[in-house]
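ugh ok fine here u go
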Amino acid sequence: MERTAALAPPPAALWQLRLPYLALALFLLAIAALVWLARAHDEDSQRTTLISDVLWMEQNLNFHFDHVVSQLAQLGPELVVAEIAPQTDAKLRQLLRSEHGLARIYWLDREGKVLNALPPPSDDHLIGEATGAVPADSVFRLARSIGRPVYGPAYEVAGGDHHFEVHVPIFTDAGLIGVTVGVYSLDELISRELPWWFTERYRVSVLDADGREIAAQSRVAPHSEAQREYTMAFDPPGHGLLVHIAAYRGETRWIPLLLVASIVLLGGIIIWSIWQLRVQLARRQAAEQALRGETLFRKAMEDSLLTGLRARDLDGRITYVNPAFCQMVGFEAEELIGQLPPMPYWDPEHIDRTLEIHDLILSGGGPHGGVELRLRRKDGERIDVMIFEAPLIDAEGRHTGWMGSLLDITEQKRARELALQQEERLQATSRLITMGEMASTLAHELNQPLAAIASYNTGCLNRLADGVTDIQELKEIHDRIARQASRAGEIIRRVHDFVRRAEPKREPLDLNVVIRDAVGLLDADVRKRRMRIETDLAARLPEIAADPVMVEQVVVNLVRNGMDAMADNPRERRIVRITTFEEGGHVLVRVADQGGGIPPETARRLFEPFFSTKQEGMGMGLNICRSIAELHRGRLGFEANPEGGTIFILSLPIEP
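structure:
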């Protein structure tokens, strides 16, 4: 819970994150409102235009009706006379032109009798009558009684057309003299009276009281919307007639449409862009969070390391150190960052070698296996470190510097030196113990040449006392004395070389010579135990670089172990065979005995320190032998002897 709260952004950051989305929502609402307002304004404009056009049409029809009534009232006195003048006939025909919508003109006397008509009627009884229509005489009587024009109801005639009449009473000084009747054709009136521009915009139809369409300007169905149509009373003529005006689908107005489409398209692009930006931002935040976590993880890992880490640029300037490095050299990170060579932790006594290695690493020629250096801490203490360098490569693949890993090997080096000293002491002790075990044999071996010398010396003295002075005989005696003295001295030298503690040294040596010296050293012990050593040494064996005393110690220990293993054998089976040969770049020494062999449970622990099968053994002989072999980059192993017993194999490389 604490970690979640720590990672949660502050309220101000939350508002900053939400503000773009709020602005986007407001922007989309503004665009939607703009489009809606533009559309509403367009609809209002079209509605206003429709109403304006309808009012114009209404005024135009009223003006037309008034004009026709005025013409009929003027022509009335000239029509009720016995004979019509040519001028009057011409006026009638002019009035009956199709654009006025009149299908026929009647004139009646004061009693309602038809005097004449133009064009002449085909059937007098149909005047003003149709199925369901109001009788014409009632309209006539109404007009005569009120003295004003009266319109009659619409009625259907042959051919599907609908007509209606207007009765115009004619008065003179003598009073009512007749009625002029104008018969309108609704189809002609609608189609002829309206101008072309009006009929291109709207469809005009006339509806009866029952809502049926009885006349129309066009039979083509219009584009009808609730706000794009208008209905008004057709008065005159009245009688429940309605005029319905519906707008046709207008031409596509590309500029507003393109403007709205552009706004919508830009809005969509903005939404898509913001969404993509949000996706990229989320990915970047996730990557930053992962990088932050990875950085913290690596920082914690680097801080927990015991290995010192130090980064340098191509000029050798320190750019990074971890806490382990600061603790190792005793300086704070602030004291080291930005430092150029020579560094404050370099040892003044080894500054030349350190600078040489530093320049070698910067040039790219540093050793791949690391290099050992001695540094000096801030408090003056000297430490030994092992440095491993690796190139620093940035994200673009460029080499920007070097990263060094430093291991403090001071204690390891001290422990190694101490272990080496202990091993040398242990080897010397082992040799002393070996020589102690061989002391009685060596004493007996030395007694022989010393006794011979004493005997030869006594003989010489006796000869001199007797006055015998055979020069040749005395010379031979002294030669024998010299040989015995040399033999005694050789024995003492071998013992001295074997037991003295000296620093290991590698020198070219013939392994066969070392084996012969070891056999000579063991000669007295072999005779005492009634053993036999057989050697099969390879001719022209390559020289190896090794310490002769250490190798001789291995051979002596292996031969003596073999003799110990054959202590209970019959005399004819007390044989140790030493063989040398070359194989695979190594020189091999095989020491074979014919003892009881090594049990499996003993074989597993044979080379362990302080493990011995002898009651008085220290358990260090074979362990020391293996250490000497590994010190010379060789191996020491064993295998079962097919003839019975064990074969120990020492392998030493020809090249160091």
